[in-house]
Amino acid sequence: MTVCIVGWAHSRFGKLEGQTLENLITGIAREALAHAGIGPDEVDEIVLGHFNAGFSPQDFTASLVLQADDRLRFKPATRVENACATGSAAVRQGIRAIDSGAAKIVLVVGAEQMTTTPALEIGKNLLKASYLPEDGDTPAGFAGVFGKIAQAYFQRHGDQSDALATIAAKNHKNGVGNPYAQLRKDLGFEFCRQESDKNPFVAGPLKRTDCSLVSDGAAALVLAEGEISSSMPRAIGFRANEHVQDFLPMSKRDILLFEGCGEAWRRALAKAGATLGDLSFVETHDCFTIAELIEYEAMGLARRGEGGKLALEGQTAMGGRLPVNPSGGLKSKGHPIGATGVSMHVLTAMQLMGEAGDIQVPRATLGGIFNMGGAAVANYVSILERLK
C-alpha cells in the first residue's frame, strides 16, 4: 500500500512572540487540513510529535490537536517522542497506521516551543537526549557532546575547521531564500571560519555558527492511503521510510561512524530501488556542522575521513553533485525539536511539487530525508517522489 502526503503546513521558525504551544499546534493542524482539502470528520487518526523534556509545563499534549476543530473529538490521538527525531517518529507512526489498515487518513503534527525557557534550562533539557550516566555533566550541554565528537574527528582525520565553516556558510546562504527560516542571513565563509565576539567557540572546535538554533515552530502533514490520494490534487509518495535505533551510550560504538545513519540509508535506498545518484537533493540533520559532515560519510556520499573534502569542493551546495539542505537546514531554518522531522517532509514535498520558491532545486524528482535523535541514536530516512 502506497502512503502519500496530500497536504501540509509550515509555520515560521524562530522566537514567536505571543504564541503558545497550543496555538502553534491548533493553527498548523487547521492549515494542513485546509491545504489537503480534508474535513476534520475524514481524519481517522492523529499523531503529535512533541519532545518537551521540560520546555512546556503542559506535558500531556496529544489532545491539544483536537482543539483545532471540535469535529476531531474522539479521534485517536497519540503523542510520540524520539529526541530530535521526534517529528519523523510521528510521520512513521502515521505511515504505519495506514499500512496496517487501521486508518486511511492521518493528521501528523510536530511542534515545540523552546524560546520561553531560560538558557540554562534549555541546555539541561537538550542534554536529556544523551546518555546521562556518561554525558550528564558535559559542559555546554548537548553542544558539548558534539564538541567532543568534533574533537575526536579532528584527531582521527585532521583539522576540519575550513570544512565546517563551509557547511555553515552553505546552509546560511540557502536559508536566505526560505521564508520559514529563523535566520535568513548569508553569513559568508570568513565569518563562520573566524572566532569573534559574535562567533565565539561554544564547545571544543565548534563555534556558534556550527550550532543549530533554539526555536519555536510547528509543521503538519496529512497522510492518505493510495486509493484516496489518487483523487487528491497532489500526492507525494513514500518510496521508502526506514527507522534504525542504535545504542544510547557512545561508549558502546564508534561515534565517528554514525552507523545507525548508514544502516538507515542502506535500508531506505534498497527499499526504494534507488542509489544516491538518483536523488535530486537531501535534507539532512545538521544539528551541528560536524553532524552533517559525518552524515556525508555514513550515507555513502564520501569515504571515511573525506566528508570535509566534499563540502570544500562544493559538491553539496546548490548546483553541486547532490544539494544538501537547500532549505538552510537546522543551521539556518531553526530546530524546534518536535517539529523538525515534520518540517523536513513538508519542505521535501514542496520541492517535489516545484513549489519551493527561492530554494527550489531545479527538476527535483526524488528527495531524501535524514532526521536524527541524539548522537546518531534514533535514525530515520525517507525517500519521497511525486506521484501526481
Report what the structure shows:
- The protein is α/β, with parallel strands linked by helices and 388 residues long.
- The chain has a domain at 3-117 and 215-229: Peroxisomal Thiolase, Chain A, domain 1, CATH 3.40.47.
- It is 35% helix and 18% strand.
- It has helices at residues 21-36, 86-99, 119-127, 132-135, 141-157, 161-175, 188-193, 226-229, 259-272, 289-298, 307-312, 329-333, 337-352; strands at 3-10, 45-49, 77-80, 105-113, 201-203, 206-207, 216-225, 236-245, 281-283, 366-373, 378-386.
- The strands form 2 sheets. The protein has a 9-stranded mixed sheet.
- A hairpin with a 4-residue loop joins strand 10 (366-373) and strand 11 (378-386).
- Helix 2 crosses helix 13 (337-352), helix 3 packs across helix 5 (141-157) and helix 6 (161-175) crosses helix 10 (289-298).
- It is globular.
The CATH superfamily of the domain at 3-117 and 215-229 bears the name Thiolase/Chalcone synthase
The arrangement of helices and strands along the chain is EHEEHEHHHHHEEEHEHEHHHHEE
Taking the alpha carbons of the first and last residues, their distance comes to 16 Å
The largest sheet is: 9 strands, mixed
How many helices does DSSP assign? 13
Topology summary:
Layout lengths: L2 E8 L10 H16 L8 E5 L27 E4 L5 H14 L5 E9 L5 H9 L4 H4 L5 H17 L3 H15 L12 H6 L7 E3 L2 E2 L8 E10 H4 L6 E10 L13 H14 L8 E3 L5 H10 L8 H6 L16 H5 L3 H16 L13 E8 L4 E9 L2
Parallel strand pairs: 2-3, 2-4, 9-10
Antiparallel strand pairs: 1-7, 1-8, 4-7, 5-6, 8-11, 10-11
